[in-house]
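Quarterly update from the structural biology core.
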Amino acid sequence: MDQPIVSILCLTYNQRKFVEQGLSSLAKQSYPNLEIIVVDDASKDGTDLWLKQCKWTTDPRFQFIFNQKNRGIGASL
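Predicted structure, tokenized:
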């Protein structure tokens, strides 16, 4: 029986100091049918640049979305 997909939405804004630890924890999940959607809300502290070159860009479970301007948490969902 196929397992249902579980989606995790990770919103970030100016969290460069913490984003690596958070994504590392998500990447360690053992559930096989998992998608992790990371939305950067136009960070100004380098979070977006780090995300664009992090090791999870080649992990098929991860999708990255980059807002061009800060939209706030409600609009980024």
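The CA atoms of residues 47 and 70 lie 13 Å apart.
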